[in-house]
Amino acid sequence: MAEALLAALGALAANKLRAALTALGIFIGVAAVIVTVAVGAGARQQVLAQIQSLGANLLVVWGANVRLGGVSMGAGQRPNLSWDDAQEIPRQIAAVQVAAGTSRQQQQVVAGNQNWSTTVVATDPDYFVAHDWTTQEGRFFTNEEAMSGRKLVLLGATVVENLFGDEDPVGREIRIRSTPFEVIGVLGRKGQNPMGQDQDDVVIMPFWTARRSVMGAPRAFARAVGTISVKVHEGESMSDVEEELRQFFRQRHRVAANEPDTVSIRNLSEIAATRDASARTLSLLLAAVAAVSLLVGGIGVMNIMLVSVTERTREIGLRLAVGARRRDILRQFLLEAVLLALLGGAVGVIVGIGLAHTLAGVAGWPVLIQWDAVALAVTVSALTGLFFGYYPARRAARLDPITALRHE
Question: Is the backbone of residue 55 left (phi > 0), alpha (psi -120 to 50) or beta?
């Protein structure tokens, strides 16, 4: 085996350029496999992080599409969700852990001589539980503070950066519509949600404080909310809870059997999971293209090995004449084919890893090097050399020594 290996290396070294060009197809295939798997794994990891940032087991209730005089006015145009609905949901549906009514409004926030336009969220402490929020600094407001209308706020990281820079905002004062608020905490970072919105560009305050001091509302809609975030207990069926919520609102809103639902319920995890499935499909498509590159590289290996057998016919005849067995010839040419493929695979691994990190830095794409995929790519390249090199090696081993020695 050692002699066969040395002979194979010597044969490859004698035709360096041809060996390099032959290995190019394997190199491209292996590099493509590593890059596509790394980008695909990174994309799936990003989607998983987005799902976790939304909050586990989360359903969001919106007002359904409203029709006035036969004209569709769009979802949520008429306030039909209330703060009281959110308080009642956990009492009526055992599988629900918490439910938090929420109203949102774009407002200009001022701190000192800095100002920033952001989303003000009016809610209660259950909202932090529903969306798995944490605090980077400070604390959340309590139920007692929320019900008493205390002028307290928590700021998202994006708001802090634009209003306070590197300074600690906890204990400082901001103004919204000329009303002063005390900053009691900075929310932990969540990044973008699956819809591409910056979840850190937010100011959260107690619901009743917002109603009295910032958002306001006609007396008839003083308790109205835009959405209700519903967190389901771990292990409970999301689809069952979704159906129970529909029935809850049909009864609460006195909807007749032949009338449509007055609410729309969205499972945000399903939206993110759909994105993950799309990323997985794209990764599989790109991996298939990479596999075709490996196939083309394998055909190139077979072609060059057939040429090599033809060129070295007299050498093969001489080896057979002086006592070489057919399996020795087979082993020698198989080793050449495998070494050729492994050469391309090794270079492909190095270039693939480098290209994946380059893409991450330049294009901002998430990448995650999968070492099992690297090992698989190298193994496949070796098997490609073995598979496509077998026919030329077998052809060389079956040559007749007398005919081979006479070959010109």
Answer: left
